[in-house]
Design goal:
Helices cover about 65% and strands about 0% of the residues. It is mostly helical. Helix 8 packs antiparallel against helix 9. The structure holds iron/sulfur cluster (2 copies). The site of one iron/sulfur cluster has 14 residues, from helix 6 and helix 7.
């Protein structure tokens, strides 16, 4: 067995993803995914790669990082495959294997950092976090930011949730469970 096939089989086992083998390649998931146009491979193609054992190609795709967990695909999949869960698992596996972070990981981190600090998001904190790594993208969003600010739809001041100590304990526990999984 090649390394790629062994990696695939380990992925199936560790992340309970064997059901990907039941995919009939109907394409309903990709057709209903709002982010598919931006993905290197839609969910259908991604699962085809995995089934073929092309794990390097699958793990380097941006697909799972673009998934916004809307569950459109899951409710429509005729085989009842937990597509969204597998997207999460693929992100974890990619991180485990040290796959170079795509831009989306930076966006994800710019969401997470203010949440970890304040227990909630602040628009400006997200934009600043992402803009530091991708100034070009941030610059392009300035007109939108100004429009939102004019309509008072932009939050500038970070507000912390009431029980931030309790929130941090929950986050610590979640991170601990994540490390153990
Ligand atoms: S909708 Fe389900 S069965 Fe159809 S391609 Fe997607 S994962 Fe496979
Ligand atoms: S859950 Fe992810 S993969 Fe499924 S339709 Fe939504 S964005 Fe696409």
């Amino acid at each position: 067995m090649t390394n790629e096939l062994a990696l695939r089989d380990n992925f199936f086992k560790k992340y309970h993803a064997e059901e990907i083998q039941n995919c009939i390649q109907c394409g309903t998931c990709s057709g209903s995914c709002p982010l598919a146009p931006y993905m290197d491979y839609g969910p259908r193609q991604l699962f085809a790669l995995i089934r073929e054992g092309d794990m390097t190609e699958a793990l380097n795709a941006n697909t799972m990082w673009f998934c916004v967990s809307c569950y459109n695909c899951v409710v429509k999949c005729p085989r009842g495959i937990s597509i969204t869960d597998h997207m999460y698992s693929l992100k974890k596996l990619a991180a485990e294997k040290g796959v170079k972070a795509p831009k989306m990981l930076h966006l994800y981190r710019s969401f997470n950092t203010p949440i970890e600090k304040h227990g909630r998001l602040t628009d400006v904190a997200v934009m600043a976090g992402y803009g530091l790594r991708h100034p070009g993208a941030a610059f392009g969003n300035i007109p939108l930011g100004m429009k939102l600010a004019a309509k008072k739809r932009m939050e500038f001041k970070a507000r912390t949730v009431d029980n931030i100590a309790g929130f941090k304990k929950v986050m610590e526990k979640a991170n601990e469970l994540e490390r153990l999984s």
